[in-house]
Amino acid sequence: MLRYIILLQFVFEDCTWHFISMSCHMHKLTSGTGRATVEPVKAGMFMFNYKLIPCKKKKKKKKRASDPFPGPAPLPEERLQKFKRREKSKLPNRKRRKLRDVVARSEVVSEMAQKRAAQFDLLLPEEAGFLEGDEDEDTCMISQEDIAEAVDITSGAKYFNLNLSQFGPYRLDYSRTGRHLLLGGRRGHVACLDWQSKQLMCEMNVMESVNDVKWLHSESMYAVAQKKWLYIYDSKGIELHCIRKFNDVLCMQFLPYHFLLATASATGFLQYLDVSVGKEIAAICTKAGRLDVMCQNPHNAIIHLGHSNGTVTLWSPNQKEALVKMLCHQGGVRSVAVDKTGTYMVTSGMDKKLKVYDIRAFKPLQSYFLPAGASCLSLSHKGLLSAATGDIVQVSVSFPPYSMTKPYMAHRVRGTVWGLHFCPFEDVLGVGHGDGFTSMLVPGAGEPNFDGLDANPYRSSKQRQEWEVKALLEKIQPELISLDPDQLCHVDQASYEQKHKERVQALGFDPLAKEKFIPKLKKKGRSSSGNVERRKRQVAHEDQRVSSLDHHQERKKEALSGLRSALDRFKK
Amino acid sequence: ANSSRPFLSSHQMKVKVLSRNPDDYVRETKLDIQRVPRNYDPALHPFEVPREYTRALNATKLERVFAKPFLASLDGHRDGVNCMAKHTKSLSTLLSGSCDGEVKVWNLTKRECVRTLQAHEGFVRGMVVRFCGNSFFTVGDDKTIKQWKMEAPGYGEEEEPLNTILGKTVFTGLDHHQKEGVFATCGQQVDIWDEQRSSPIRSFTWGVDSFSSVRFNPVETELLASCASDRSIVLYDMRESTPLKKVIMNLRSNTICWNPMEAYYFTCSNEDYNLYTYDMRHLDRPVIVHMDHVSAVLDIDYSPTGKEFVSASFDKTIRIFPRDSGHSREVYHTKRMQHVICIKWSADNKYILSGSDEMNIRMWKANAAEKLGVLSPREREAVNYNQKLKEKFQHHPQIRRISRHRHLPKAIYSQAKELRVMKEARRRKEINVRKHSKPGTVPVVSEKEKHIVTVVK
Fold this sequence. Notes:
The structure holds two protein chains of two kinds. By secondary structure, chain A is an alpha+beta fold. Helix content of chain A is 19%, strand content 32%. Chain A has helices spanning 15-21, 77-82, 97-120, 144-150, 153-156, 461-473, 493-507, 529-561, and strands at 3-7, 32-38, 45-52, 130-132, 160-163, 170-174, 180-185, 189-194, 199-205, 210-215, 221-226, 229-234, 239-247, 249-255, 260-265, 269-274, 279-285, 293-297, 302-306, 311-315, 324-327, 333-338, 344-349, 353-358, 363-369, 376-379, 385-389, 392-396, 409-412, 417-422, 428-433, 436-441. The radius of gyration of chain A is 37 Å and the shape is globular. Chain B is globular. Mean pLDDT of chain B is 93; it is low at 1-9. In chain B, the strands form eight sheets. In chain B, strands 16-17-18-19-31 form a five-stranded antiparallel beta sheet. Chain B has a four-stranded antiparallel beta sheet with strand order 3-30-29-28, with no helix packed on it. Chain B contains five helices and 31 strands. The interface between A and B is large, with 70 and 51 residues.
């Protein structure tokens, strides 16, 4: 074996590090001079003469600074409230331990999801727009030109007029992503364009009158209600279908999650077309004459129709009669709009009134008198209400109480307004009128943060294809349309009770009934028949007491809530 | 950043209009992945429940589409497969014994037989691998217990047992202790053997009968349970000289299996087409009666998680039951599979192995629609999400109907229908009798109590 003798003098700061990195062993390492044998793995034995002069270590007394804000960041209550799905469910009886566990665990999970979503809200990139006037300056006095001048160029370019005086007046529709605009002139002019880049996708004249135009699920197809039939074109303007089952259509609504095109016709028919399979789902004769006022509730896909006798009726494809009939106006109804959350319905009528209803409780909230009466209404994502009175478009601030006497914005266009639509995810209001089309800037109208998986204005064609497949896969069946869209997740108590009744009848006894108390035989002579009888009676009395207590409490509650009057005791 | 600052004009008004920079929303180069900004606001996601329901429905349908449980058939035996044993250490090894006394060792990953040995004359009645995995025991109709090495003999060596014990009577089953060198056999009586000795260290009898199966408790390792032909299930403690207690049922139980996780529960397969889960502390009524088979149940094995068990039946089907449910969640059958004699659930909780009359051993997936192999993270996430959805909406009638739908051979389908009619008639008659007799004279006997004759201590 080779032996090397190396005389070295080391000055270590931290000797162990050096030796470990050499992967060898050192014995009896002490400060001072001496000899150490070092055995590398292969190369034989080294011998070191060393001198260790350990450096004085700096006193690194770095105390860990205590966190001034311990724990997770607090979340404001209203933001948590925004993501709340439903009330906390009551935990079941302790006896049903398994069910109790399941409910408690799911409660924890949903609470966590709610918190996560609320925390994520901080990271949203955009903020909503706004418009504030000078002191003692009304925002409604600010002209569109001034706003367009004040904002950046791209936003300023969103205010524009299209002078189309030849074939007007115009109806319009924005696609769900807000990128594409569809215009339909009364005298047959149909055009669709990417309105932000101002690129025309197609333009044509269908050579007959056009009643309404509507985008279907994506920007590749749209429906046009023409003089006689309903037609479907693609974005190049090629006629795909002429649907002869749908005649004399006056207005249309597209239900994006159901892939249903709802049409209302001059003959009083409300029809539903499933655009994914091209089948008529339902044809309902409303028996209410010409139907030219229509809107959808985006929250539950119920169709609202306005009639000439002042009623608004609510329809689903599953029922031949109206779900609800509301008498809203003394004259005919001119326009109806429902907000995004399905809370408010705004109607305007021939009696020159504009009314706001709470559509969940079917209660009126507000009523105004507008001297000219509103012919068109539209609600934005953020809840701004726009109303067209003659050739003036008024926009009122978000959410009731709206103030129409002192609107948020106002703009005069060059003809009577025929169509009015807020652009999704943009601060833009599109106005179709007798002299063409006007795109207005309305700061604060649009939802600033879109969801990329739902409606993405910047999606590529690949992303659109992927979205289309996913959306078709989770198309909601028309049978699921009802006033309460969350009904599927409620417990069906009624049919459970019915089933239980049938089960009891079939079995001949109630399997869920409380077992009859059988006293245990106790030892040591305590089970005399008298004692047993007493114990039985005790339990029976306890049961009786519990049930009577419950009854008593219920009555007390009723009395407190005012449901029960003093005279009710004489009821039979 | 510019767009978020309010602009000032000559009017001194403050205005901000939404203006997004497309660069923030579109990928920079084609090599990047697409940007997908999210906003979880419920107002932007209407129809949450109906859409989830639709997804759950689709997931349920796809599950039925992908449900292809049959994996492989291992053929090679020259007579019906009578018993099987899982290797205690190796997942890929299976041992099987047939009615002609042949024992085969299988490699499950390669799906081939790696070793064949003629162990007995007549049936191989029982087989068990020692806890160390180095050797295994077999019992046969020739009244012998043989211990074999797990390794195959070298070239030129003869296939010889390590140890042979000649008993007085025929053995019908055996099981090995979890930790010690002790095993139990059953036949005319239940014997406890020390590996080192040639005579039993203890013998249990309770009346004159013959036993068909004996099993050690996996947790309380000194406890045993056995099924006897006098319709009883007997519990023993190895340390005592007499049996603990027994329950006598209406019909004979064939085999017994302990729940490996909650080892105070055991389940027995019975001749009356049912399986019964008992709590060993309360033998007077079973915890659950598992029904669905239409003929005698021959064998049962628990999954290693203790949440489910699988049963083999004379009606040519295999059924999987959740531990706490009265009906099966799954039924497996093929055209060619005859009476299934023995069944095992693999130790990785993924496969089921069944040995049947027509000389084949079949390998099944424990979860029929599961995708085998490595899943990518996105795949795994999707699977988990779908699983949760199915769980959430499992009680909706449409979803339940689809997820419960199974194709059954016509014979079994009609037999099940017939049994249902018979049961219904019996129940109707009982109700009528009760209606027309003095109240209280015809008591309601629950399904659980119906099949128990008595408990003896």
